[in-house]
Amino acid sequence: MWIAKNWKDYEVIDTSHGEKLERWGDYFLVRPDPQVIWNTDRNDIHWKKPNGHYHRSNKGGGEWEFNKLPEEWSINYNDLTFNLKPFSFKHTGLFPEQAANWDWFSSLIKDANRPIKVLNLFAYTGGATVSAAKAGAAVTHVDASKGMVTWAKENAYSSGLKDAPIRYLVDDCQKFVEREIRRGNKYDAIIMDPPSYGRGPKGEIWKIEESIFPFIQLSTQLLSDKPLFFLINSYTTGLQPAVLSYMLHTALDNKFKGTVESDEIGLPVTSNSLVLPCGASGRWTAIN
Q1: pTM of the predicted structure, to 2 decimals
Q2: How far is CA 274 from CA 13, 15, 90, 171, 270, in A?
Q3: Are strands 197-199 and 205-207 parallel, antiparallel or unpaired?
């Protein structure tokens, strides 16, 4: 498992009864987690009165209960700053487990010793975007949500990347990739974090099990003659690490020389030194 173990401003303190107790900087949150199917004693005092508690509804969705939690605050990861705020469906605007991938591709970018162009698809609030930009890459950030793209810009500014070569686009990722192919544009690295389900601007239905492999194949057409890496993240139960590996091998082996590895990503739990699984990632790395 790839573990995001270098956080100082974030930690999973404990897990029990379908929930996790987290520290985000100076604030403590309790949020539901479908992976937590075990029950243990809740000994930490912050279980009883956290700054924020997301209560899942039996009818679907849920709502936040707050206790002295600001509307917005920020945390740091190394020299990056991320702005946080609780919003619908339990999220805060950041997936801390992705730091395991940020560290991996940041090293590749720095060690490349050449200009690197990165395409970040389904880019959300830009954790990967600011990490790649801080490592020295020029990044194209694409997400269909205007609010998420605005949030990504704020994270970049807070991280000292206001003037970094980041291009922000509010667009449907599939349509954008198709247009970039027609334009003849190329990228040295591609990052994608596709949703399990979604709808395009004209009502097109995206189901990850049906759509993801054709989209990976399509996206490989944007890779330069000397690509660096290809990263795909999955939070969908059916797309296990071996499936991600199989797709990357199939889509890339005939075009480029590289290696593929896939694994779960996770976060260490302070109370017991175990690791909470948080999805999976597939990594293709070029052999030069």
Answers
A1: 0.94
A2: 11, 10, 23, 39, 8
A3: antiparallel
CA distance 167 to 153: 10
Order of strands, sheet of 52-56, starting from the edge strand that comes earlier in the sequence: 10-16, 19-24, 27-32, 52-56, 62-66
Burial (CB count <10 Å: 0-12, 13-18, 19+), residue 41: exposed
**Host domain of residue 22:** 2-84
Query: Does position 97 have pLDDT exceeding 90, yes or no?
Result: yes
Q: What value does the mean pLDDT of the chain take?
A: 94
Decide which of 50, 84, 118 is a domain's last residue: 84
In this structure, are residues 44 and 271 in contact, taking their beta carbons and an 8 Å threshold? yes
Check whether residue 74 and residue 105 sit in a common domain.
Answer: no
In a domain, 181, yes or no: yes
Q: What is the CATH number for 43?
A: 2.60.40.1180
Question: 107 in a domain, yes or no?
Answer: yes
Quote the CA–CA distance of 284 and 288 in Å, as a whole number: 13
Q: Is the pLDDT of residue 243 over 80?
A: yes
